[in-house]
Write a sequence for this structure.
């Protein structure tokens, strides 16, 4: 039996046994009469995985109070996997894949998102499959399939030699699975075999699920049954197993074969839904679209999130001009986590049906225990098999860039798709860019994508409704860098760019996110920067008028008078004011140091003296004269001093401020104090004459 004999029962967790706390699996409809119209009556979440399906469920009390919502990742009875001789996949490999996936999932997040049942763990710590499980829509009751002939449990056959002896395909080297009765086989040397679908009419011992359900009518009370069978005590037994044969529509397998199952904690939302939410889409609008598509599973996930605070605060800056940066930061964070999953080694799955798909990408939103909005607390997950295991246990490795292409397409979907343009329009524009890189050697972003011309790449498209959204040009670099990272993925996937590096890509993405985050949470907002610029322009106009006026009245100044403007850093200014300032003597040339805006400390006004009088003074800046060497201390000039010397005659309206210069002259001491002006002795002019 290949060590697969231990199979726990899920029945004790399903409430039919009277458990106080049980697992309630969501149904497609609460109406029993409507359930008969569903071939599979359980609510399913769209998941394009060939091996598994997603089903919402809840842990509830015996009074029906919900404790926690969960998602069940359940192994399929029929694999939607096309036969491909180049890519053979077998039952044994899939079993090992489930076990590896379970081990990877539980170790990677320390059980933060996975619920573990004690019975599903074997003694060696590996994952065990649950026993086959059937469901009666009428009684809403679960039960295990029993052998119609002896009433004992049916089990899956793992013995290849036994299967081959009766003309069936072996378990270990195929994707075929069969139920049989071990008790009948052991006592009589034979048994009927049951398959979910695809019975062979030439093989009388092989039957399908419908045959098995019909034969449940042969069970009777006299049989020694290990588990209760709900049909025996049902008053509608005759309807189900009589001439009308309604049992085949009322009884369905939850899982025909023994099945692996993960129980994932709630808070999951599909990636496409999450992207639209962080783009600013309203949840009620999203639910309306899903309702029109009859995607009840994804609606259920959204409603579950609504109970956890989805209808509360979404963003930090949605009423602020930094809203663009916040949305861009969240989207790049989502893409960064997805890139980590893809680059973790999971891309070694190269089977045509085992590749990545957008439907498998889900986002786990954390419980509302954080002060941040709900959309700021998330973790990207890839549900299903094929991409959640760390290593491929069976498929051969070969060079391929399909994972880069997948990430590149998701990249532009995330940044550009909104209510005004769908993915088809984005692909059409990207297609023209891809043609350009295959026809010439110039593969740079600006030579391939017309960012400034095409509206498809407009930064406003980051919002779900781009109408009327504003974008500050100072953030243009962030947007271009974001598009450039996505373009590098597509370029590498098409032409195998040897210069592309996973580590370099990750570093550039981290640096971009860091720069955006620093800008997003900086103290000075863009409004303040804009106001400063406007103030500087006004100052520039005033200074220009003053300079022109001073230039006209400066004709009486002699050519040998040298007056100089020197810039000092705040530290240099403080040292100079405290240690180097001296009172000028008559005949000395005075130099004015213009301090940078904001760097002038508040001065405590000294008490005025009745012997002092304030004399207005203007400072002449001689633009046509080459300045003398700026003031230096006894120490070696710093780089700032050198830069100050080089820029001594430059007029920079953004660095200079309008300073109202006044001089207080002390007649007794001849000391001069000029507000906001530093006066110091430098040298005497040659043959200075009195004017």
């Amino acid at each position: 039996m290949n060590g697969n004999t231990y199979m726990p029962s899920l029945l004790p967790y399903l409430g039919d046994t009277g458990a106080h706390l049980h697992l309630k699996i969501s149904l497609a409809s609460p109406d029993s009469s409507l359930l008969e119209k569903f071939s599979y009556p359980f609510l399913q979440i769209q998941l394009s995985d060939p091996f598994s399906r997603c089903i919402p469920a809840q842990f509830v009390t015996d009074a029906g109070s919900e404790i926690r919502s969960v998602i069940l990742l359940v192994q399929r009875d029929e694999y939607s996997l096309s036969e491909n001789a180049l890519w053979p996949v077998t039952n044994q490999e899939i079993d090992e894949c489930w076990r590896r996936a379970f081990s990877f999932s539980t170790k990677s997040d320390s059980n933060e998102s996975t619920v573990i049942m004690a019975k599903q763990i074997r003694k060696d710590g590996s994952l065990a499959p649950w026993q086959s499980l059937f469901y009666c829509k009428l009684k809403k009751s679960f039960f295990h399939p029993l052998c119609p002939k002896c009433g004992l449990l049916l089990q899956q056959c793992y013995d290849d030699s036994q299967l081959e002896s009766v003309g069936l395909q072996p378990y270990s080297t195929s994707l075929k699975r069969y139920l049989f009765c071990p008790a009948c086989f052991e006592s009589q040397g034979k048994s009927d075999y049951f398959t979910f679908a695809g019975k062979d009419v030439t093989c009388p011992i092989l039957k399908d699920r419908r045959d098995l359900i019909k034969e449940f009518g042969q069970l009777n009370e006299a049989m020694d049954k290990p588990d209760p069978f709900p049909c025996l005590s049902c008053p509608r037994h005759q309807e189900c197993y009589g001439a009308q044969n309604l049992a085949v529509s009322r009884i369905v397998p939850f899982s025909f074969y023994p099945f692996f199952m993960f129980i994932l904690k709630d808070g999951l939302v599909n990636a496409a839904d999450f992207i639209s939410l962080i783009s600013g889409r309203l949840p009620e609008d999203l639910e309306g679209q899903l309702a029109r598509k009859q995607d009840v599973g994804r609606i259920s996930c959204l409603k579950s999130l609504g109970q956890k605070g989805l209808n509360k605060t979404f963003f930090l800056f949605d009423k602020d001009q930094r809203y663009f940066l916040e949305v861009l930061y969240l989207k790049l964070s989502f893409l960064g986590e997805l890139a980590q999953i893809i680059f973790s080694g999971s891309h070694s799955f190269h089977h045509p049906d085992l590749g990545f798909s957008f439907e498998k990408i889900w986002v786990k939103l954390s419980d509302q225990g954080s002060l941040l909005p709900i959309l700021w607390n998330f973790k990207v997950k890839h549900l299903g098999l094929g991409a959640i295991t760390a290593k491929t246990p069976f498929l051969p490795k070969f060079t391929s860039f399909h994972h880069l292409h997948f990430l590149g397409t998701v990249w532009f979907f995330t940044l550009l798709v909104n209510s005004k343009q769908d993915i088809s329009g984005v692909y059409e524009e990207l297609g023209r860019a891809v043609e350009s890189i295959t026809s010439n050697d110039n593969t740079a972003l600006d030579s391939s994508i017309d960012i400034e011309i095409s509206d498809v790449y407009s930064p406003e498209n980051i919002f779900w409704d781009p109408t009327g959204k504003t974008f500050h040009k100072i953030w243009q670099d962030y947007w271009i860098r974001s598009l450039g990272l996505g373009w590098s993925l597509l370029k590498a996937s098409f032409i195998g760019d040897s210069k592309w590096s996973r580590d370099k890509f990750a570093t550039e993405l981290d640096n971009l996110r860091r720069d955006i985050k620093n800008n997003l949470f900086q103290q000075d907002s863009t409004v303040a920067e804009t106001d400063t610029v406007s103030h500087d322009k006004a100052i520039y106009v005033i200074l220009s008028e003053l300079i022109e006026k001073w230039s006209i009245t400066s004709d009486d100044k002699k050519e040998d008078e040298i007056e100089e403007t020197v810039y000092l850093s705040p530290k240099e200014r403080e040292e100079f004011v405290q240690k180097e300032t001296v009172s000028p003597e008559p005949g000395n040339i005075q130099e004015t140091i213009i301090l940078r805006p904001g760097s002038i400390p508040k001065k405590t006004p000294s008490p005025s003296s009745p012997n002092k009088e304030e004399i207005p003074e203007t400072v002449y800046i001689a633009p046509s004269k080459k300045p003398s060497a700026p003031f230096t201390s006894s120490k070696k000039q710093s780089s700032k001093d050198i830069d100050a010397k080089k820029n001594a005659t430059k007029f920079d309206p953004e660095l200079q401020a309008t300073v109202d210069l006044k001089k207080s002259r002390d007649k007794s001491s001849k000391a001069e104090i000029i507000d906001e002006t530093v006066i110091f002795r430098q040298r005497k002019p040659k043959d200075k004459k009195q004017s």
Summary: The longest helix spans residues 526-552. Residues 561-674 form one domain.
